[in-house]
Design goal:
The chain is α/β, with parallel strands linked by helices. It is about 35% helix and about 20% strand. The strands form two sheets. It has a seven-stranded mixed sheet with strand order 6-2-1-7-8-10-9. The structure holds S-adenosylmethionine. S-adenosylmethionine binds next to loops. S-adenosylmethionine binds near residues 33, 105, 159, 161 and 177.
């Protein structure tokens, strides 16, 4: 409101209605878009051992992973690296052809940064130097996502509280450090939505300080309580 010299909520609401760019600016100001590659590395290690073997064995023609509330893209790219490393370790890169990783965020500017795929060194403090060197070559002072990782991920602007998911039933939803900002009712509604979007037996991963609430505790079973990995029942 100060930036627009609005003296009342009503006046600011009027600006939101008439200025097409103001809504994006408001969302950008209100959202917290901090992320890192392999944030909480132990969670990624658990996904590799407890989730990927099942996704690899799944008979489906497509395997869909949704990073919901991905901020500037570090999380879906980390998932892509994890999957590629898994495929290499199992000598079957062809399995990556059926993999679809979708990163989405409500904040348009974050999605633009994610699609660009260029990051400062600070984004890699939780990443092993070997992985950074292998998949993120340094170009003009920034680390660029290499094509074999970039090609596994698509991005879109999406409000996780509105509409459906990113198309098709999902094998895993990773939604970390997003719902902490929501009310309890909204969190419960969101868990029900994730339940509808996930295939039976598919996986949900939450942030380290987030947990299932109310009815949703009967809709998912813990796979790793510590890493907040759950299986849809
Ligand atoms: C702290 S970041 C988390 C990024 C990443 N998941 C991680 O854990 O590193 C939270 C993100 O949630 C997004 N967000 C908040 N509300 C959202 C909503 N309703 N729909 C989609 N994204 C939302 C914010 O824009 C922000 O980028």
């Amino acid at each position: 409101m100060r930036a627009k010299s609005a003296s009342s909520f009503a006046q600011y609401a009027g600006i939101l209605d008439t200025d097409p760019h103001e809504y994006d600016k408001l969302v950008e100001a209100l959202t917290i878009n901090v992320s890192k590659f392999f944030r909480n590395p132990e969670t990624f290690a658990s996904i590799a051992t407890k989730v990927l073997p099942e996704l690899w064995a799944a008979p489906s023609p497509l395997v869909r992973i949704w990073s919901a509330g991905c901020a500037t893209g570090e999380e879906p790219y980390s998932l892509a690296v994890l999957c590629r490393e898994y495929a290499l370790a199992h000598g079957d890169l062809s399995k990556l052809e059926r993999l679809r990783i979708i990163g989405s965020d409500i904040d348009r500017e974050s999605v633009t940064v994610a699609s660009r795929g260029r990051y400062p060194a600070g984004a890699f403090t939780d990443t092993s130097p070997a992985v950074r060197e292998k998949y993120f070559p340094l170009e003009n002072g920034l680390f660029s996502v290499s094509p074999e990782i970039r090609n596994l991920v698509s991005f879109e602007r999406r409000d996780i509280l509105e509409g459906g998911g990113p198309g098709g039933r999902l094998h895993m939803v990773v939604c970390r450090n997003v719902i902490i900002y929501f009310t309890r009712d909204t969190q419960e509604r969101l868990f029900e939505r994730f339940h509808d979007l996930l295939l039976p037996g598919a996986f949900l991963v939450l942030g380290k300080v987030e947990t299932l609430l109310g009815k949703s505790r009967e809709m998912f079973a813990p796979v790793s309580s510590r890493e907040r990995i759950y299986r849809r029942l």
